[in-house]
Amino acid sequence: xxxxxxxxxxxxxxxxxxxxxxxxxxxxxxxxxxxxxxxxxxxxxxxxxxxxxxxxxxxxxxxxxxxxxxxxxxxxxxxxxxxxxxxxxxxxxxxxxxxxxxxxxxxxxxxxxxxxxxxxxxxxxxxxxxxxxxxxxxxxxxxxxxxxxxxxxxxxxxxxxxxxxxxxxxxxxxxxxxxxxxxxxxxxxxxxxxxxxxxxxxxxxxxxxxxxxxxxxxxxxxxxxxxxxxxxxxxxxxxxxxxxxxxxxxxxxxxxxxxxxxxxxxxxxxxxxxxxxxxxxxxxxxxxxxxxxxxxxxxxxxxxxxxxxxxxxxxxxxxxxxxxxxxxxxxxxxxxxxxxxxxxxxxxxxxxxxxxxxxxxxxxxxxxxxxxxxxxxxxxxxxxxxxxxxxxxxxxxxxxxxxxxxxxxxxxxxxxxxxxxxxxxxxxxxxxxxxxxxxxxxxxxxxxxxxxxxxxxxxxxxxxxxxxxxxxxxxx
Length: 476
Known about the structure:
Layout: E1 6-11, H1 37-41, E2 44-49, E3 54-58, H2 60-72, H3 76-79, E4 81-90, E5 96-104, H4 109-118, H5 120-155, E6 166-170, E7 173-178, E8 181-187, E9 194-200, E10 203-210, H6 213-229, H7 242-257, E11 275-283, E12 287-292, E13 298-304, H8 308-315, E14 322-325, E15 334-339, H9 346-359, H10 362-367, E16 371-380, E17 386-393, H11 405-421, H12 424-431, H13 440-453, H14 459-472
Antiparallel strand pairs: 1-2, 2-3, 4-5, 6-7, 7-8, 8-9, 9-10, 11-15, 11-16, 12-13, 14-15, 16-17
Helix pairs in contact: 2-4, 2-5, 7-12, 11-13, 13-14
């Protein structure tokens, strides 16, 4: 596509050829010099002017600007066509910079428009690709400069000569100790700021960010001295010690045994027991965002867990044969899986539970690190007592040892008796928790919910608890 004075071609990909010394590519203008050959073979829009003996490869953004220039304004029909290069560098007005490359006669306009429009989609892709390359080059340049500056900044500080002993075990991370207080300074991944952090056992840490390493170090040293000088605070546990809780349980049980509210564990025995398959599963999130906290710590946010139906597919369980609940709430890690079918013998339930486990993909999911821990067995429908046949977990996430059925029913009878007695303080002693952990309002809600379902209370008392719940629970 050449004329006597100009030409245009579009290379969909680089067209580099093996050439002997002094040899020119096929079809190129005769005046081409060796330093012009690369421009002729590059990917994209190639334009040349025979009169000026100039050849240019237009960037994607320059080609798109040229197309707009030719189609939106027809002044070129009288004045000729001025080809400009539009770079990705930004001026003070935030517009791409440009400079003239060459001029073409107005007769070149129709053919330029035709070639540019025919290849507009590919030219747009090239422009986007060039912008990505340019942005990445700028990012790497800034990163190199910032990295150089931060390394030089650390050399200017006399860490060994400071009043607090500083040490660095990793690049761009410094830590120090003053009495019981600890301080850290570390460079953010972006390298724009230094994160400074101080903490002490029993105290909530303090943190902030600085542009200057010197300021970050001085802030940590000052905060360390102040934090270390603060008196020790007594840390109150929100859960009572085992020894105290055992004593409270003995006292509460003895009090109820001599009163009108005691329910004998034998009264909880159902006339007939039905059984269901039970699987308890603690899953890991399928996706999450990682937030890097001060000085290297990471926190998982926006966790996403499988829906019950997708979990059934992943575990190779028939969704129609099982109820899959998430007791803590939707999109949480805890799943409780029970069979729709009830069994009249424990042996039959145990056999079906084992077959379900063997046919499932639970072990494969656990080995693939998608499950934190899981166990399986069967459960009494009426009492909800569970017998577990097996499971798997890492040592740090091991399951608690199951209690005996006798102890389970005794514990349920005690809790039922406490609910009927409607004694808030005794119920708190039974739970063994502080008011900071569980409020009085939360405990009362639990008591009234149990009372509203109890078959050991008169109908009038159950109605009273339902009225209380209606007044204290929000309407959804």
